[in-house]
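Researcher: Quick test of sequence recovery. Tokens follow.
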């Protein structure tokens, strides 16, 4: 497991990876891993930089998501939300055939280890409110504004 920290338009970002893919992307460094910039980590950073500059809408680095089957189902469904669009937690729960699991969907999004690349920022409250985000609501709002442009 390796990690490297970069300065970006949204502050310090730490990207972690193993031989299988990117394992986390966080705006704080509270993650395990030897400090070493690998080719995969560098590629994820370059794609993130292009995304933050409005030059990229999708990421194509391999991911190594670690979580429960339910969490992975939520994260995969989050990846299907088109760039520039948002859906509610309720709608996401319905998409994964778990319409009564709205809170569980929110909890799964809260555990998303690779936010931005797995775009849980595109999931909002039913009333349009931003609600929680692992990177903080200011970053969530900035990402959504970026995608609306």
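Model:
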């Amino acid at each position: 497991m390796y990690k490297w920290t970069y300065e970006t338009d949204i502050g310090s970002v730490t990207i972690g990876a193993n031989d299988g893919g990117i394992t986390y992307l966080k705006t704080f460094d509270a993650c395990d891993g030897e400090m070493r910039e690998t080719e995969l980590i560098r590629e994820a950073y370059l794609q993130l930089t292009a995304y933050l500059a409005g030059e990229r809408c999708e990421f194509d680095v391999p991911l190594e998501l670690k979580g429960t089957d339910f969490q992975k189902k939520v994260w995969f469904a989050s990846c299907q939300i088109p760039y520039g669009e948002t859906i509610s937690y309720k709608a996401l729960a319905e998409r994964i055939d778990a319409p009564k699991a709205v809170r569980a969907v929110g909890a799964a999004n809260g555990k998303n280890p690779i936010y931005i690349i797995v775009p849980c920022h595109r999931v909002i409250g039913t009333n349009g409110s931003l609600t929680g985000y692992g990177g903080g609501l200011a970053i969530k709002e900035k990402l959504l504004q970026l995608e609306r442009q």
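The radius of gyration is 15 Å.
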